[in-house]
Design goal:
Blueprint lengths: L2 H13 L4 H26 L3 H12 L5 H6 L15 E9 L5 E7 L4 H14 L14 H10 L8 H11 L34
Antiparallel strand pairs: 1-2
Amino acid sequence: MKSGVLAVLIWVLCSSFSGPEDSRKVEWFYIERFAPLAVEEMHRVGIPASIKLAQAVIESNSGRSDLAIQSNNHFGIKCKSWWKGQSYYHKDDDLDARGRLMESCFRAYADIESSFRDHSDFLKSSPNYIPLFKLDPTDYKGWATGLKSCGYATDKSYADKLIRTVETFQLYRYDTYKATIYDLPADKGRSPSSLPRETTVD
């Protein structure tokens, strides 16, 4: 299925859910869809699959954000001066000279898969994030706090949100998947109705 069609289907599916329980199901379906890609990228570049999935869930609201729908950008990555690809303008947290909120330039992609891969390359090639790749590959808490301290997001609670997402959906189990190609269902036989309850952050 082409990514554009997939994005529309995800949006339609998500828009029909209203309560917290339904929203949790949407998050689970999103994880199930992109866990294989996250595992492949983990083996290619070294970013824990748990962290990539948690970031995607948070940054794109599980594929429901305007940025994700309009530009296939699932990680909130801005253009930067060296970006040569397509762009999409969206108000975020950038201010003009008068302190007024202005439109920020975000990267736009032909498909969702390209967003996942560019996220990997962005972190791997940026000097800011070099310390993260020295961490134990299963240290999702270290990666979560490191992403915040290295400047990935301005949200003061970003690290806690990442850790909570990883633990709520037990995303850490993907970090020890040894095969270079993920070939098992993301829920390993469980149904969205039997999701684990949210855990507290240590």
